[in-house]
C-alpha cells in the first residue's frame, strides 16, 4: 500500500553538513545532519546506553532525511527498511531478544480466560521493565515484502532504587506476538531499553519519562527508509506541585500515576505526590537511538504549564501529536484543573513541531455518574482514513477513580469535539481478570486492506496494581464497542 505523503520540500532535504546545536533554526527550514554538543546547556543530547553521563561528547548522524513536517502520520505507513546506525554500545543487561510469551514472569496469569486481551506482560525478572509497564505507542509499517509493528512503551525495574520510568521498544510481525529486550538496545535492529531520564540537573525530565506519540517525518523526495522518527514524551522532574485536597476527590491525585502497590509499599514513590511534568521531543533515525531536541522552555521542554488559575497550571502530560497538513501539527495533552476539580484534555498547534501555541481545553468532565465524570486523560487522536474525521480515544476518570476508555469525534480535530456515546467502549474486566481494576492509555490503530477494523491497544492493571498491555478489536468499522483479543479466527 502506498503511503500518502505531503509535497516535497526541497529546502529541507538533509545534506552532509555539520551544524552547531546552538545555531539550529527553530523553524527547521535549513538542512541539518550532525549536531555536535557544546558546553552550553542549550544543546541536543543523544542517549547512549553504555554511558549516558558522557552524552555531551557524542554526535548524532542523520543521513538523507527531511526534518520538516511532511508526513503521513496515520498508524499505518510504508517503509522499505529501518535505517542503519553506527552506534555500537555494550548492553548493561543481557540483550538477546525474547518473545512476549517467553518473558512472562513465574507469577503471571495462568488461565487464558483470565488473561483475555493481554498481549504484552511485565518483563522477566531483573529486566528493565519487570516492575511496571504502560503508555503503549503502536505503529504499523507496511512494505511489499513484510509487515512490521513497533511499540514504544514505558517501564521501570525492581532493580532501580527509585521508580524512574524509561522508554523501551518492542517489535512484532503481526502486532500480537512481540519481541522484547531485557536491557538497553545494542544494535540498530535491537529491542529493549532505548531512552533513559536526562542526567542534566536543569532538565525537565530527570526523574521519569513516558512516550506520548511517535510521528514519522519524511518527504516524497526522500526514501521512506531515511525518515526521521519524532518522539513526543512526558518528562517528569523532582519539582513537586502544591495542591491541597479538600476531600472532594474519592481517589488519590498524583503525577505520574502509579498503580503498582509495590511502588508505594517499598517507599520508592511518594504516595499522593504531584510532580511537575512537561512535554519533550527527541529525534531518531532508527527508532532506537534518540537525540533530545530542546524547546523554548529553560528546562528544554517544548512549553510550560499555564499561569495560576489556568486549567493546565499544575502539569502537562500525555502529549499526542497528529499531522494535519503541511506546517500544521496538533498536540493533545491533559492536565488537572484545580478550579473545577476535573481532568481535561487541551490542544496546542504548531507549524514546525517545536514551537507550540495553546488553543485551550477541548474535553472536560462528563455527565454525573458517568464513566468520565471527573474528566479525561491520555488522549490518542487518529484521522479516520474512511471519512477524514478525527477520532479520539481517551482514558475516562469516574468519580471513584475507576478508569475506562471512551471515544470522542471531531470534523476537523480542532473544535466541536463531542463524545461518541455516553458509555465507555472498553471497561475493566470482571472478577479476576488481569485488567479488572482499570484500563487506560489507549492507542488506536486503523487496519485496512483485507481486514476492516480498529485495534485498540491499552494499559490495564489488576490485583495489586499489576500492569500489562492489552489489545481489543472493533466489530468491523463500528467503534461503538471493542472486544478483547482472544486469538486469530480463521
Automatic annotation (TrEMBL):
Region of interest (Disordered), residue spans: 62-110
Biased composition regions of type Polar residues, renumbered to the chain: 62-98
Compositional bias of kind Low complexity: 99-110
Signal peptide: none
Entry-linked InterPro entries: Glyco_hydro_beta-prop_sf
Sections of the chain in a coiled coil: none
Residue ranges crossing the lipid bilayer per the database entry: none
Protein name as it appears in the record: Arabinanase/levansucrase/invertase
Amino acid at each position: 500500500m502506498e503511503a500518502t505523503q505531503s509535497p516535497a520540500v526541497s529546502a529541507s532535504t538533509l545534506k552532509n553538513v555539520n551544524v552547531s546545536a546552538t545555531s539550529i533554526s527553530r523553524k527547521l527550514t535549513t538542512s541539518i545532519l550532525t549536531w555536535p554538543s557544546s558546553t552550553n546547556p542549550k544543546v541536543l543530547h543523544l542517549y547512549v546506553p553504555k554511558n549516558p553521563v558522557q552524552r555531551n561528547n557524542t554526535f548524532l548522524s542523520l543521513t538523507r532525511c527531511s526534518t520538516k513536517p511532511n508526513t503521513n502520520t496515520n498508524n499505518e505507513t510504508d517503509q522499505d527498511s529501518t535505517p542503519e546506525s553506527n552506534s555500537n554500545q555494550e548492553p548493561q543487561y543481557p540483550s538477546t531478544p525474547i518473545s512476549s510469551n517467553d518473558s512472562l514472569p513465574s507469577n503471571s496469569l495462568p488461565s487464558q480466560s483470565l488473561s483475555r486481551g493481554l498481549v504484552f506482560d511485565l518483563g522477566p525478572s531483573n529486566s528493565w521493565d519487570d516492575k511496571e509497564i504502560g503508555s503503549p505507542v503502536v505503529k504499523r509499517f507496511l512494505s511489499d515484502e513484510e509487515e512490521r509493528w513497533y511499540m514504544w512503551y514505558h517501564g521501570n525495574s525492581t532493580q532501580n532504587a527509585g521508580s524512574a520510568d524509561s522508554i523501551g521498544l518492542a517489535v512484532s510481525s503481526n502486532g500480537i506476538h512481540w519481541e522484547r529486550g531485557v536491557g538497553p538496545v545494542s544494535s540498530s535492529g535491537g529491542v529493549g531499553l532505548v531512552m533513559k531520564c536526562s542526567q542534566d540537573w536543569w532538565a525537565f525530565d530527570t526523574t521519569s519519562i513516558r512516550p506520548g506519540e511517535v510521528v514519522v517525518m519524511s518527504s516524497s523526495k526522500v526514501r521512506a527508509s531515511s525518515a526521521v522518527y519524532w518522539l513526543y514524551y512526558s518528562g517528569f522532574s523532582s519539582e513537586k506541585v502544591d495542591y491541597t485536597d479538600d476531600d472532594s476527590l474519592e481517589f488519590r491525585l498524583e503525577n505520574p500515576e502509579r498503580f503498582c502497590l509495590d511502588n508505594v509499599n517499598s517507599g520508592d514513590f511518594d504516595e499522593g505526590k504531584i510532580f511537575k511534568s512537561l512535554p519533550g521531543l527527541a529525534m531518531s533515525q532508527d527508532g532506537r537511538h534518540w537525540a533530545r531536541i530542546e524547546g523554548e522552555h529553560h528546562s528544554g521542554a517544548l512549553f510550560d504549564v499555564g499561569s495560576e488559575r489556568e486549567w493546565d497550571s499544575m502539569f502537562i502530560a500525555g502529549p499526542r501529536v497528529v499531522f494535519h497538513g503541511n506546517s500544521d501539527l496538533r498536540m493533545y495533552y491533559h492536565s488537572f484543573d484545580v478550579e473545577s476539580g476535573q481532568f481535561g484534555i487541551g490542544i496546542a498547534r504548531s507549524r514546525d513541531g517545536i514551537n507550540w501555541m495553546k488553543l485551550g481545553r477541548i474535553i472536560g468532565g462528563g455527565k454525573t455518574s458517568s464513566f468520565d465524570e471527573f474528566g479525561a486523560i491520555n488522549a490518542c487522536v487518529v484521522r479516520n482514513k474512511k471519512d477524514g474525521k478525527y477520532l479520539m480515544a481517551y482514558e475516562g476518570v469516574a468519580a471513584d477513580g475507576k478508569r475506562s476508555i471512551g471515544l470522542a469525534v471531531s470534523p476537523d480535530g480542532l473544535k466541536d469535539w463531542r463524545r461518541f456515546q455516553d458509555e465507555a467502549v472498553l471497561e475493566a474486566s470482571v472478577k479476576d481478570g488481569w485488567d479488572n481494576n482499570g484500563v487506560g492509555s489507549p492507542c488506536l490503530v486503523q487496519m485496512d486492506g483485507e481486514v476492516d477494523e480498529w485495534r485498540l491497544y491499552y494499559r490495564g492493571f489488576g490485583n495489586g496494581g499489576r500492569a500489562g498491555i492489552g489489545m481489543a478489536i472493533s466489530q468491523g468499522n463500528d467503534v461503538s464497542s471493542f472486544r478483547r483479543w482472544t486469538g486469530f479466527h480463521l
